[in-house]
TrEMBL record:
Organism of this sequence: Alteriqipengyuania abyssalis
Keyword tags: Membrane, Transmembrane, Transmembrane helix
PANTHER family per UniProt: DOMAIN PROTEIN, PUTATIVE (AFU_ORTHOLOGUE AFUA_3G10980)-RELATED
Protein name stated in the entry: VanZ family protein
Transmembrane segments: 12-29, 41-58, 65-83, 95-116
Length: 129
C-alpha cells in the first residue's frame, strides 16, 4: 500500500507520542476504589490507536510484523506492571485485549487507506509523472 509521505510522517510522530502516553498511563499507580470494568476496553482502544498509526506510518512493514511488535509492547507493559515497584498487577487478559485492539486497528487502517484516495493520491500522482 502506498501512503502519502506527509501522512506517514504524521502517523510515525503520533505513534511515538501515543506509545509514550500509553506506557506512562499503564505504569502509573491506580487510584483506590472499585474495579473498573472498562479496563479491557481501554486496553483495546489504546492498541487500536497504536496499530492504526503504525500501519499508516509503516504500511510496508505488514500487518503481521506490526501485530507482533505491538503485542510485544503490550507484553512489556504487563511485565512492568507485574513488578512490585509500581503497585500494579500484570493481567494476561489485558494482553488479550491489546491483541484484539491491534487486530481491529489494523483492519480499520487497511480499509481507511484503501478507500480514502485522498490519503494516497499525492504519492500516486508523483509516481505517474
Amino acid at each position: 500500500m502506498i501512503v502519502s509521505p506527509r501522512l506517514a510522517r504524521f502517523a510515525r510522530i503520533a505513534l511515538v507520542v501515543a506509545a509514550i502516553g500509553a506506557f506512562t498511563l499503564a505504569i502509573l499507580p491506580t487510584a483506590p476504589g472499585p474495579e473498573n470494568m472498562n479496563d479491557k476496553v481501554n486496553h483495546a482502544f489504546a492498541f487500536f490507536v497504536l496499530s492504526g498509526l503504525a500501519y499508516a506510518g509503516w504500511p510496508r512493514a505488514g500487518a503481521v510484523r506490526i501485530f507482533v511488535l505491538l503485542t510485544a509492547f503490550g507484553g512489556l507493559i504487563e511485565i512492568v506492571q507485574g513488578l512490585d515497584l509500581i503497585g500494579r498487577d500484570a493481567d494476561i487478559y489485558d494482553l488479550f485485549a491489546d491483541m484484539v485492539g491491534i487486530v481491529i486497528g489494523l483492519f480499520t487502517a487497511r480499509l481507511v487507506l484503501r478507500f480514502a484516495p485522498e490519503l494516497t493520491e499525492e504519492l500516486r500522482e508523483k509516481l505517474s509523472d
